[in-house]
Amino acid sequence: MKKILIIDDAQDCRQVIKTMLKKYDLDIIEANDGLEGWRTIIKEKPDLVLLDIHMPLKDGFEILKDIEEEWLDVPVIIISGDTSPNTMNACLLNGASAFINKPVMKNDFNNILKFIRA
Questions:
Q1: What is this structure's pTM?
Q2: What is the C-alpha to C-alpha distance for residues 23 and 74, in angstroms, rounded to an integer?
Q3: How far are the Cα atoms of 51, 94, 109 from residue 22, in angstroms, in the given order?
Q4: What phi, psi does 36 have (nearest 5°)?
Q5: What phi, psi does 14 have (nearest 5°)?
Q6: Does domain 2-117 have CATH number 3.40.50.2300?
Q7: For 29-50, what is the mean pLDDT?
Q8: Sheet with 98-101, edge to edge strand ranges
Q9: DSSP labels for the chain?
Q10: Cβ density class 94-106: b for 16+ within 10 Å, e for less
């Protein structure tokens, strides 16, 4: 069973993503801030991380940097309401596999499924 970690400080966003993933046979883990998310990455070794950018204690950019510094081989999909071209490019340049806008729409959800099936 694949392990998916959702790191987002907005509980409602985590719930929407969990609901979309519910019909798949997945172990879904949640973290409600960046620091908890980073600790969960280290402890749980997820197969995929769904990561918000702007969060308390540790933001998504810091987590991307930490993943790279620790040579962790985990794909990260950014899910953020900050859709400025600079933010999107910075995420992809810093190791994110994909960028999905909030709110997550069903057709964007297909990008997540590609990584789950891989």
A1: 0.93
A2: 22
A3: 18, 29, 13
A4: -60, -40
A5: -60, -40
A6: yes
A7: 96
A8: 26-31, 2-7, 48-51, 76-80, 98-101
A9: -EEEEEE-S-HHHHHHHHHHHTTS-EEEEEESSHHHHHHHHHHH--SEEEE-SS-SSS-HHHHHHHHHHTT----EEEEES---HHHHHHHHHTT-SEEEESSPPHHHHHHHHHHHH-
A10: bbbbbbbebebee
Domain ranges of the chain: 2-117
Nearest-angstrom CA–CA distance, 101 and 65: 21
Average pLDDT, the chain: 90
Q: Are strands 26-31 and 48-51 parallel, antiparallel or unpaired?
A: unpaired
